[in-house]
Design goal:
alpha+beta, five-stranded antiparallel beta sheet, 18 helices, elongated, zinc-finger, FHY3/FAR1
């Protein structure tokens, strides 16, 4: 800090409005009114102020914050921080006194001269604590954006736009950050009682709302599960496939978020959610238990990585064996060939994977409708939506529950819009219709011709096809993709076209 020149003084300019300059003729109803007037003058001139508490109840001193000298009892060698004091002995101040016998307040001493330069620009004065201006409407806007998880840079961008430019914005980035921190501290107080109060309110609004919580040995909530009435209705309609995942921590306590997720015509549907203290087996006793390919391979990840290091190329072959075969018999043959090729018959991890193949190899559950879901990608997709729009790791639990309700309302609105804009809405949403239309178009491009490069051919004899196809016919494909995903295949569309075309054109010949 530059040492001030004791012979140099600074004061307000002659062009300053006399109405804002303190004088001895002025009187005020209270000390607070006198301080607010002086604060207005200070803001126009550009220096920080403070209230001097040395006076009694009959007088107040309002001083420049740089008044006095900083005396420290700490030796320079023992100082833990290198922050220097801003006090440099400035004498600028006003003394306010109450008239004898009580009544109005007057200025009894006024010192305009400073021993430091003044900063009358708005960009400087707004950084001084005494000149902070908290516009209620602006602060409400800040709170709303914070509650909506708007990133800090975007918050500042909106505030500058609303204020008409950064020079007109009376808030600094630090002010906005402090506002958010204060809100977080406030919301953390009585978090669990606020959560239960919110649940009771939901129950009062709709008796079908369900919530349950589990207490630990200290009578503190350990886990909590809840489901809104609309979610229960969705479960009744779309529970053909349910996934469960606990991959995202959404709150200040780092409690895992567990969700039961399904789908409605390729749209995510959340049936219920829980916040858990931990991921122990006993915690999941009352929750959904189902594992697919991701769970199994993730469980043996370390062993598989070690095996892949010892046998280069095994990882690619294993992936192909898992994903490519159409039927169990083909999987069995491919698995045996893989074991022979890499000589890994004695691998314990591969033995474990093989023993559990009914749970994770697609060839063994193709006839089970999974809505294109063979792992927990639906839950992970919802997790991403929650993370980027509704909460973060500083969110209180009761705030998270409220934010999740907003997410459900948003999803319902999107579903209603999709239903309104859908073609064939009784069968397909637009998302599914686009997939179907693409496959329908692809079905017209199929041509079957011999491969001249092949000297021999292999065939799987499945059935004898009659030339005459009945009016009411049922076609099945061995890949069972219709049963597995609910979507028509290009091959089957092509077959349907072939039947229709025969009926249309054969009579002409």
């Amino acid at each position: 800090m530059i040492t001030p020149d004791v012979n140099q003084t600074y004061t307000h300019g002659e062009d300053l409005d006399p109405e804002v300059v303190p004088n001895f003729e002025m009187s005020f109803e209270s000390f607070e009114d006198a301080f607010l007037f002086y604060k207005k003058y200070v803001g126009r001139v550009g220096f920080p102020i403070k209230k001097n508490r040395k006076r009694g109840t009959t007088g107040k001193d309002f001083c420049c914050s740089l008044e006095g000298k900083h005396n420290t009892k700490v030796q320079d060698g023992d100082r833990k921080t290198s922050n220097t004091s801003k006090r440099d002995g400035c004498k600028a101040m006003v003394c306010a006194r109450e008239a004898r016998g009580g009544g109005r307040v007057f200025f009894t001493r006024i010192v305009f001269e400073h021993n430091h330069k003044l900063n009358p620009t708005p960009s400087m004065t707004k950084r001084m604590r005494a000149h902070k201006v908290e516009d209620p409407s602006m602060m409400n806007l800040v709170d709303t954006m914070h509650a909506s998880q708007v990133p800090h840079p975007n918050v500042m961008r909106v505030l500058r736009s609303v204020a008409g430019g950064v020079e007109n914005l009376h808030l600094t980035e630090r002010d906005v950050q402090n506002r958010r921190a204060a809100h977080v501290r406030e919301e953390r107080m009585d978090d669990i009682p606020k959560l239960l109060a919110f649940f009771r309110e939901c129950k009062a609004n709709n008796p079908q709302f369900f919530y349950e919580f589990q207490l630990d040995d200290k009578n503190v909530i350990k886990n909590v599960f809840w489901s809104h009435a609309s979610q229960q209705s969705d479960y009744a309609d779309y529970s053909s496939v349910v996934t469960f995942d606990t991959t995202y921590r959404t709150n200040q306590y780092s409690m895992p978020l567990a969700m039961f997720v399904g789908f409605n015509k390729l749209q995510n549907v959340v049936f219920g959610q829980a916040l858990l203290r931990d991921e122990r087996a006993d915690t999941f006793e009352w929750l959904f238990k189902q594992f697919r390919a991701w769970h199994v391979t993730n469980k043996f990840r370390n062993e598989l990585n070690q095996l892949n290091t010892q046998h280069p190329g095994l990882s690619e072959t294993l992936t192909s064996v898992i994903n490519h075969p159409l039927r169990p018999i083909e999987f069995e043959q491919a698995w045996a060939a893989m074991l022979d090729k890499y000589e890994v018959h004695e691998s314990k991890v591969l033995m474990k994977l093989y023993d559990e193949r009914n749970m994770w190899v697609g060839a063994y559950f193709k006839e089970i409708f999974c809505g294109t879901m063979t792992s927990t990608q639906r839950s992970e997709s919802v997790n991403s939506t929650v993370k980027h729009g509704y909460c973060d790791n500083s969110t209180a639990i009761h705030e998270f529950a409220k934010s999740f309700l907003k997410l459900l309302a948003h999803n319902k609105e999107k579903e209603a819009e999709e239903e309104f804009n859908s073609q064939l809405s009784r069968v397909y949403t637009r998302a599914v219709y686009k997939v179907f239309a693409s496959r329908l178009k692809s079905s017209t491009t199929f041509r079957v011709r011999p491969d001249p490069d092949k000297a021999g051919h292999e065939f799987w004899v499945k059935a004898v096809v009659n030339e005459e196809i009945p009016e009411e016919s049922k076609f099945n494909c061995e890949c069972m993709r219709i049963e597995h995903t609910g979507m028509f295949l290009a091959e089957k569309c092509s077959l349907c076209f072939l039947v229709r075309c025969r009926k249309m054109f054969y009579p002409l010949y």
